[in-house]
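Aim 2 progress update. The chain analyzed this quarter is reproduced below.
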Amino acid sequence: MLSLTINNKPLLTGQKFSCRISVKNPFFLFNEIRGPLAADISLPVEGNRGALGNPNRVTKRAKQNDRHFSGAKLLHFGLPLIEGDFVVNNALGTVEGWIQNNLGKLGEELREKNLTELDFGDACAFVNKTTFDPDSDSWCTLRLMNRGFWKDKGKMVESDDGTDIEELTNKFEALAGFFVNQSDTGGVITSANTDGAAVVSPYPFLHSLLDTLLRKNRFYISDNFLKLDADLKTLCLYHNYNILKDTSTIEEQTFALFNFFTQTEEELNLDAISASTWDLAAFNIHDLVPDIDIKKFFLGVQNTFNTFFWFNNNRTVQIIDREGVLKGQAFDLSQYRVSEWKVGERKDVALKFSWDHDNNDSAFNERWENLDDKRDRILDAVNSRNDLNSIILPKEEGDIRLVLNENMYYEYGWFTINEISGGLIEIETVVKGWKPVSIGLQNYFFNDGDKDQEEIKSDFSTLRMAPEGYPVAYQNGNSKTFSSVREPFSPRLMFYKGNNTGGDESVSGKKFDWKGDSGFVFSRYRLTAPFLAGRLPIEADFRFPPRILHYVMNNIYQKMKDSECEFMIEQLDADPGPEEETLVRIQAYKLEDNFWSFNPGVVPGGGDGTEENMVPKFVGVNKYGKPYIVDETGKFKTTSVFGDISTAAYAHHCCVDYHAASNQLFIGGNNGYVHIYDLSDGIRMQSLRMGTISESISGIKVANGKVMVGINNQRQYCYFNQGSFDNYSEATIGTVTGGSSEVGYTIRDFEYYNGYYYMCSAAGEIMRCDATIGQNPKEITDRDTEFICMAQSSSRMYVFSDNDREFSCLKTNTDKWSEFRMLDGSGSDRPPIWEATPNGNNIIALSSEYTHSLFVLESPSAQTRINIGGYGMGAAVVGSDVFIASGSYNLTSGQLYKLAGSQVVYQFNLPDCMSLYAY
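Predicted structure tokens:
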């Protein structure tokens, strides 16, 4: 049964009381923070007047806040589902309302408030010391340069070069060299006499600030990943506030001032400051935080570091690591699913990771340019300016490269220089070369391309770093002395490294940047980014008993699984009521392992989510073009980001080939792309796209150092040299000509033998051209059939078709092709051959017939038929052993068998592989 209480007092609900519950998983929320919601609650007025304060009169006269009843708890067979406020929105006849959980209540209280408006507690006393501990201290100091701190404050004086400058700026330079938190014995300079000016800025540790913020609103962090991670716990929040207070020597003086309102001159007695000293004073945390919307601040924390906030019913909060969720164990819901999975359309989106830089810091914004629209011109980075200037490759205007040791982008093109002699500009010259265009903190695009974008926006940034290794700003400062005007600053974070040092890099080398091996996308989104970019939506119905509904609602962010797959719930919708079991609709995304975490030569983890290492033995590809690597025990890894395979007929067999010597996998994709995967380290699945073919690809084969590619519904093929993964060039187009417009129409497969390339087409042709591929292929024979694939043994060449008309020739006479049939034991003809794999003098041929799938051909007249109980999907020869992948055509999984004479021996289950190769 479903019940509702207010401050532990039950409300009268009725025997058929039910409601609609909707819960969104915060794992997938990057633009909002929200909790569960219980809607469509209907209660009788009579019997609830005391608890709800005559709700029918509330509707007519009460203020809006009177309609919220705190301490509400929705229970299902005694287990709490949602705790928070019961909100009444109608009480005429019946009480109609909904329950917002405690997070919703917090959001309502803090809506449209900024950090600076919150109560962070009593004033704090600064304790000076050389090193702060992020585990026990609330803030730290680190040395940074800010020449503009005292800009527009105090009186102006003439500087040594004759220009006007603030007197405080002069004194700041004299005492501290323009450094905020200038180092001193025992910590930092904390006082200044009348000849100097100092700035002390304690920077709050981010995890401590969040703890204080939530605690002041009666929420308590139970698990804080930001404090557990060795790098993230050292993050501190930059600000431009000086906690030192001035003590001024003053004397009363009379001044004659012009009153603009009365247009008369007046004499005023004012206190003139003749000298000032600076000393420590108590400070408030709200002076150290930026003027930012609280929601944006929380979202900035989530999105920058790939965490999320989970608000529990008992007013505790967890700050959870998304990467840790994906590495965690899955909760089994197998026995509760009551419908088939409905599979949606796979996402293929570019993830845009963006920053929000501080426009009030001239040291940053005058050196930063958004390069989003120029990112296709950004080439490989170089280590230094010398490396940049020594590039001898052809350079084009608009080329951009990052110089790593400066973290500065340079653009190649025309610009002007002014040659200076004796302090005077003598001549202006136009030159061509590399010019600095922007500092390196750019937005980052994962899985970039001509596709939809989803933005993961950080509302944070960091400071520019000087070559000497300290942060640099040029930003007006704040202090209690000049409190009438608050100089703006945006939220920026730095890593604290101890001994009054820090900046954009942690002690372990993590960078406050999206890009690079040490940037946040690789270090914090290593598993999450590929999953989000290529996620596969699925949907099914479950029927949960009370304890399972309670568990899933309170742990919706965890991995789940059933008998078919692991998945992450995106949204849960349920209508709990008087029945013990509740029908639940789950919208989810299927979990598929990705390849972003590896050690060379070894694949960490398996497809079942375990963490033990595996050594690749097989390479498989499913009918959508997704690659797998599989070890000898059946554990597998795959990538969740891949290009769709060609839409041409039989593409799942014809448009895939693997070159074992270089561990390169070639997949013919749709829209004329060849996806090339380098598997040489057992794990790298980066795709290189070659956009040189304008139609879908009909076949692909590595032959004699060439990657031969057929073009669907065209009398064309193309080829490119097979070589290093990083050195592929554009393909060369070849056209097949002959007496018929159908000659060479849709080439399906290729073979190379003895100086000649052989091709077969969907139009029933077998063609040949010599090693000078640019020549037009010669038609050898034309048969009334549709060819699918080719293969060669040590003595013969074979071509197989889709209608049981196979052809072969001796390699000693490739002009003469003879027809033969695949036969079963009774002499009956057999159906099409999909795959053909050479094994010495034999050919392993795989058929689409369900019960007679495998043939071993020693010659056309010497055939062995083997029943493997399913479709033959692919064969791999490993040494002297032959392995067969089997399954159903619309398979979601399959089996691997080992050939043993005229029998097959089951090895283990496979993922949904339709092609198989020896790694």
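The two ends are 57 Å apart (CA to CA). Residues 58-63, 593-611 have pLDDT under 50 and may be disordered. These observations will guide the mutagenesis experiments scheduled for the next reporting period.
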